[in-house]
Specification:
Layout (H helix, E strand, L loop, with lengths): L5 E6 L17 H5 L1 H13 L3 E4 L19 H8 L7 E7 L5 H15 L4 E5 L4 H7 L7 H19 L7 E4 L4 E3 L9 E2 L4 E2 L14 E5 L3 H6 L5 E5 L5 H9 L8 E3 L6 E3 L8 E8 L1 H4 L1 H12 L5 E6 L2 H18 L12 H4 L8 H5 L2
Parallel strand pairs: 1-2, 1-14, 2-3, 3-4, 4-9, 9-10, 10-13, 13-14
Antiparallel strand pairs: 5-6, 7-8, 11-12
Helix pairs in contact: 2-11, 4-6, 10-11
Length: 364
């Protein structure tokens, strides 16, 4: 294998098992204080896991007696975890269907600043009537429409991150000038369902562009994933097909023009990205299935041609200590995981270069 696998850990309540919160090892109050997530992220970081993801959805959870029927906001939880960690990447899930693109990008940029260049986000969509009812702003739409809109949101976010040049902040107390206004740029972005003038209210993030990820849940999401830098694929016997589709998308195919609706307008998505880092998402239960079974499963998925794995533990309190103390060392002995003390930006850990600011380049 040319390079170690990228490793990710998902944080979702007390774990992927909806009944995990009832275990005697769990203090249920720690779910809503964020302590459970902090502890899991710190254990993952100490073990050398590259990034943690935070699950989220707009739908109100069902009121089922033996399941957790609340969920903390993923972005807020990532911000809670950021100051308690130093090296691990942080990717909250953000549903873009009912949220303002300007606020989304500003929030992700802020997370990148406070984490020192370790932020990203998982762009997601919502097609359900339940989410539409909760928000109350628009009717539900089919996947093709919501994922098309999501691609516009991703492009607008990258333009807004570029709307500040890297040296726009001058902090010149002698002249009373904090910002060089000539290095802030309007983006003047028009999409079928929104428009953004800019510039952003947040300076350019440390990574230039925080990592944009997409979780593939269907063919429309797979198409949108060609715009992402990080892609999560579901574990499947048919894994080869989506991996091939992502690998075969040349850079010029990533800069496309999408039809923009009944008025005939169109918007060119020009933020070409390199071939994405592809992870397969797998549910793991080392406390029940054994550490060796998990290690073998990861090795098999790694041999299937992906760049890494996203581990979804059934129980944060039972499984994450085993993943940190036994699974990762076993992977390292096989050459399947990198060293545990790597630092730097999330882009650096994923082998991705920092993007050039499009406006600074065009202005010179």
């Amino acid at each position: 294998m040319s390079r170690p696998l990228v490793t990710a850990l998902e944080i979702d309540g007390a774990g992927g098992d909806p009944g995990a919160w009832r275990g005697p090892e769990v203090d249920p109050r720690a779910i809503l204080t964020g302590e459970l997530a902090v502890r899991a992220a710190q254990r993952a970081e100490a073990a050398g896991i590259d990034l943690v993801t935070f699950a989220d959805a707009l739908e109100a959870p069902d009121d089922v007696p033996d399941q957790v029927s609340v969920r903390l906001d993923a972005l807020g939880l990532a911000a809670r975890v950021a100051p308690t960690t130093q090296r691990i990447g942080l990717l909250p899930t953000i549903t873009v269907t009912h949220t303002e693109p300007f606020h989304v990008q500003a929030s992700v940029a802020t997370l990148d600043h406070i984490s020192g260049g370790r932020a990203g986000w998982i762009a997601d969509v919502s097609t359900s009537a339940a989410a539409a009812d909760v928000i109350g702003r628009r009717e539900p739409a089919p996947p093709a429409e919501t994922w098309r809109e999501a691609r516009y949101v991703v492009d607008a976010a990258r333009r807004l991150w570029d709307s500040w040049e890297d040296d726009a902040i001058i902090r010149d107390a002698a002249t009373g000038r904090f910002i060089d206004r000539d290095k802030l740029h309007y983006v003047d972005f028009e999409a079928p369902t929104f428009s953004v003038k800019g510039p952003s209210i947040v300076p350019r993030p440390p990574q230039g562009h925080p990592i944009t990820a997409i979780r593939v849940t269907g063919p429309e999401a797979l198409t949108a994933a060609t715009d992402a830098e990080l892609v999560f694929l579901p574990a499947s016997d048919e894994l080869a097909a989506p991996v091939a589709a992502l690998r075969s998308a040349e850079p010029d195919r990533r800069s496309v023009t999408l039809a923009a609706g009944e008025d005939g307008r169109s918007v060119a998505l020009t933020s070409a990205v390199p071939e994405p880092v592809v992870l397969v998402s797998i549910a793991v239960r080392p406390h029940a299935d054994g550490v060796e079974a998990v290690v073998e499963s990861i090795a098999q998925w790694g041999a299937a041609g992906v760049d890494g794995v996203q581990l979804r533990p059934a129980s944060l309190e039972l499984d994450v200590p085993l993943i940190a103390d036994e699974v990762l060392p076993a992977l390292r002995r096989r050459g399947l995981a990198g060293p545990g003390d790597r630092g730097g930006s999330l882009r650096g850990r994923l082998g991705l270069r920092r993007p050039v600011n499009r406006y600074a380049r065009s202005a010179r």
